């Protein structure tokens, strides 16, 4: 199915505008109706472009038919400026499947492969995807941390700025995720003093001026959600995200897409835990799921305006 039939767009024009006007497009992961509707409402109410990100495990969880039904039900038009993106595609086959389902953007993650093998895999995906006008994101460098079964690593390696031009030219990728000290999951830093490697980002941006750069593993892990989760029975200790001021600085240095997953998970869990604890007699899923949805909506609003700086 062609993504244009859903009213979706690819990422090319939104990234070009983000680079020109110094903001980032948020890529919010979703997993069900509640998380999807919260993200879309935040996008519409801020007039911000948004990338709806779906991991392979989330696609398996929702099922392709239900996913397409939910996207169809949004009644999108190209003016909404919404892309549907495969997050961390693990193979050429998974990217092909997503494109045939109607995704307008795919990420092929060959970051754990040697340079040449990564480049060859990305090139194979771009040659196929560009036939359908689908955007392709690649990754150079490896992030540590765990988000789900398809997004985990116990080691990390920074992106080498000397490699990026060769990589982009060989692959014809439309955007590049780089490793400058972010990580997946809710445990991104050991202390508040850790800073991203802005020297690497500056060097990459110098090598690739006006080229879309992406930050994965860049959730800010809001402290109030951690506090609420722990207050109502959770056990999240030492969870720490990327400071918003560092993310805003990165946005001014050619980062035009920032991935957010952990923040939405934390927001949703905090809302559900608090509602159930404060309303022990309630067994209506619509009530406690609505509390989680409200938290995600409010967090997306905040991140769009105060981190991505993309809202109007």
From TrEMBL:
Key word Metal-binding present: yes
Entry keywords, A to Z: Calvin cycle, Metal-binding, Zinc
Cofactor (UniProt): Zn(2+)
Binding residues annotated for Zn(2+) 2, in chain numbering: 109, 139
Pathways per UniProt: Carbohydrate biosynthesis; Calvin cycle
GO MF, any single term: aldehyde-lyase activity
Designated name of the protein: Ketose-bisphosphate aldolase
Biological source species: Candidatus Enterousia excrementavium
């Amino acid at each position: 199915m062609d993504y244009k039939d859903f009213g979706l767009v690819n990422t090319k024009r939104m990234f070009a505008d983000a680079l020109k006007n110094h903001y980032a497009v948020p890529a919010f992961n979703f997993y069900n109706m509640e998380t999807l509707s919260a993200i879309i409402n935040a996008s519409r109410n801020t007039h911000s472009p948004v990338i709806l990100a779906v991991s392979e495990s989330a696609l398996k969880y929702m099922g392709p038919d239900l996913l397409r039904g939910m996207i169809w039900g949004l009644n999108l038009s190209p003016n909404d400026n919404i892309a549907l993106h495969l997050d961390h595609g693990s193979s050429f086959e998974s990217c092909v499947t997503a494109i045939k389902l109607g995704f307008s953007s795919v990420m092929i993650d060959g970051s754990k492969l040697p340079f040449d093998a990564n480049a060859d895999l990305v090139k194979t995906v771009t040659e196929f995807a560009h036939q359908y006008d689908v955007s392709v994101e690649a990754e150079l460098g490896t992030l540590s941390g765990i988000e789900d079964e398809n997004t985990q690593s116990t080691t990390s390696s920074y992106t080498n700025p000397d490699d990026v031009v060769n990589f982009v030219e060989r692959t014809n990728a439309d955007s590049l995720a780089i490793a400058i000290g972010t990580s997946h999951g809710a445990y991104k830093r050991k202390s508040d003093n850790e800073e991203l490697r802005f020297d690497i980002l500056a060097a990459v941006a110098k090598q690739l001026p006006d080229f879309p750069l992406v930050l994965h593993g860049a959730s800010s892990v809001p402290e109030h959600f951690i506090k609420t989760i722990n207050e109502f029975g959770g056990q999240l200790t030492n969870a720490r995200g990327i400071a918003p001021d560092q993310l805003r600085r990165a946005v001014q240095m050619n980062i035009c897409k920032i991935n957010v997953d952990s923040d939405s998970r934390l927001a949703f869990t905090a809302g559900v835990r608090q509602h159930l604890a404060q309303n022990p007699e309630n067994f209506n899923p619509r009530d406690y799921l609505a509390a989680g949805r409200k938290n995600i909506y409010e967090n997306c609003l905040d991140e769009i305006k105060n981190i991505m700086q993309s809202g109007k």
